[in-house]
């Protein structure tokens, strides 16, 4: 396997993935090379939506595919916007619209009650109907500020305060976000899974072949 499709239409995510996968010996191609239409995210969890997107991209490309479904779960909003993070302020909402809606929803909520977590689910399928996908999840905890700060990143980054760094996710140097974030942690877990499920079995097969003949 030397090529996989990255099943995302989000330019911010694609940029992060290109850094997170920079050491890999695999060509990671954008789904825009293959897709006519993006998948409908009808799942009830990040994992289900990641699988839907990975299967969709694999069906369109005929290649293995990796998808990321992610979002922000805010404690004071019972986990909203969660899986609806991209469309919190409505279908086609911009990042600025979503951030504005979040600030309005948290109006008057004191800082100690503004805890939130970014979640990321990664799903990898070898083919569109792969019965044993590789799936992993990770989260990144922080607080939602009362006004945006920083111009790096995307989505809710300008509102997401990372206490350990005393900066928002949009103020962090990219290499720091790519060390701490939900996506970074999920990719590290994925690397482990990839080794266990894709690399080791091939080595075992090759070794077994040598013993047989
Ligand atoms: O589905 P794809 O094509 O990958 O692109 P998308 O933007 O629709 O992605 P999601 O469905 O996974 O929605 C995730 C939303 O959660 C937010 N989000 C996810 N990860 C984020 C991050 O690292 N920083 C800021 N916001 C993030 C952002 O608003 C995303 O649009
Ligand atoms: Mg989406």
From TrEMBL:
<dbReference type="InterPro" id="IPR029001">
    <property type="entry name" value="ITPase-like_fam"/>
</dbReference>
<feature type="binding site">
    <location>
        <position position="177"/>
    </location>
    <ligand>
        <name>substrate</name>
    </ligand>
</feature>
<keyword id="KW-0546">Nucleotide metabolism</keyword>
<feature type="binding site">
    <location>
        <begin position="182"/>
        <end position="183"/>
    </location>
    <ligand>
        <name>substrate</name>
    </ligand>
</feature>
<keyword id="KW-0547">Nucleotide-binding</keyword>
<feature type="binding site">
    <location>
        <begin position="154"/>
        <end position="157"/>
    </location>
    <ligand>
        <name>substrate</name>
    </ligand>
</feature>
<dbReference type="Pfam" id="PF01725">
    <property type="entry name" value="Ham1p_like"/>
</dbReference>
<feature type="binding site">
    <location>
        <position position="40"/>
    </location>
    <ligand>
        <name>Mg(2+)</name>
    </ligand>
</feature>
<feature type="binding site">
    <location>
        <position position="70"/>
    </location>
    <ligand>
        <name>substrate</name>
    </ligand>
</feature>
<feature type="binding site">
    <location>
        <begin position="8"/>
        <end position="13"/>
    </location>
    <ligand>
        <name>substrate</name>
    </ligand>
</feature>
<keyword id="KW-0378">Hydrolase</keyword>
<feature type="active site" description="Proton acceptor">
    <location>
        <position position="69"/>
    </location>
</feature>
<protein>
    <recommendedName>
        <fullName>dITP/XTP pyrophosphatase</fullName>
        <ecNumber>3.6.1.66</ecNumber>
    </recommendedName>
</protein>
<dbReference type="InterPro" id="IPR020922">
    <property type="entry name" value="dITP/XTP_pyrophosphatase"/>
</dbReference>
<comment type="function">
    <text>Pyrophosphatase that catalyzes the hydrolysis of nucleoside triphosphates to their monophosphate derivatives, with a high preference for the non-canonical purine nucleotides XTP (xanthosine triphosphate), dITP (deoxyinosine triphosphate) and ITP. Seems to function as a house-cleaning enzyme that removes non-canonical purine nucleotides from the nucleotide pool, thus preventing their incorporation into DNA/RNA and avoiding chromosomal lesions.</text>
</comment>
<keyword id="KW-0479">Metal-binding</keyword>
<comment type="similarity">
    <text>Belongs to the HAM1 NTPase family.</text>
</comment>
<comment type="subunit">
    <text>Homodimer.</text>
</comment>
<feature type="binding site">
    <location>
        <position position="69"/>
    </location>
    <ligand>
        <name>Mg(2+)</name>
    </ligand>
</feature>
<keyword id="KW-0460">Magnesium</keyword>
<dbReference type="InterPro" id="IPR002637">
    <property type="entry name" value="RdgB/HAM1"/>
</dbReference>
């Amino acid at each position: 396997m030397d090529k996989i499709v990255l099943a995302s239409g989000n330019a911010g995510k694609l940029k992060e993935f290109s850094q997170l996968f920079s050491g890999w010996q695999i060509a990671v191609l954008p789904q825009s090379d293959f897709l006519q239409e993006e998948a409908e995210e009808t799942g009830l969890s990040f994992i289900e939506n990641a699988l839907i997107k990975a299967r969709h991209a694999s069906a369109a490309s005929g290649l293995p595919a990796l998808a990321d479904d992610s979002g922000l779960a805010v404690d004071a909003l019972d986990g909203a916007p969660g899986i609806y993070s991209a469309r919190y302020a409505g279908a086609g909402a911009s990042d600025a619209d979503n951030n504005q809606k979040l600030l309005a929803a948290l109006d008057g909520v004191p800082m100690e009650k503004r805890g939130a977590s970014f979640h990321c689910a990664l799903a990898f399928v070898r083919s569109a109907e792969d019965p044993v996908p590789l799936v992993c999840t990770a989260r990144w905890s922080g607080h939602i500020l009362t006004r945006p700060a920083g111009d790096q990143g995307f989505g809710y980054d300008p509102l997401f305060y990372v206490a350990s760094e005393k900066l928002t996710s949009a103020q962090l140097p990219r290499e720091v976000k790519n060390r701490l974030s939900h996506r970074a942690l999920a990719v590290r877990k994925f690397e482990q899974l990839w080794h266990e499920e894709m690399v080791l079995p091939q080595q075992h097969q090759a070794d077994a072949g040598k013993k047989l003949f």
